[in-house]
Hints:
Elements: H1 2-15, H2 22-35, H3 40-44, H4 46-59, H5 69-81, H6 97-107
Helix pairs in contact: 1-4, 2-4, 2-5
Amino acid sequence: MDGFYKAMLSTASQIGLPVIGKWTAAKILFVVYAYGGSREEFSLSPKFKADIEYIQRTYHIDGGETPDAEVVAYIKQLKADNPTDIAGDANTGEIPDWANDLCKQRYGFTLK
């Protein structure tokens, strides 16, 4: 299944089909930035790694490129709505339900 999923994302990227929307891409990137710091689950999930590669290619998040302006705006909105401290932990000490649900539904693990 993982090989099929990665191949599907690669094909979709080559033809410009947005399998992962900009809002979802921003949420995934924000979750990693804000709550993923030392979590092994992210590096062990083939689906997560395939999603990140797809997001990098599709929305120009890879280094040296100008990132998609809409994705950047969504990330800024998420940062404003979910403030984090320098260590990447939520100021309240709580991980928002939406972030936990995203990881649970897409990747099969929870952040809490």
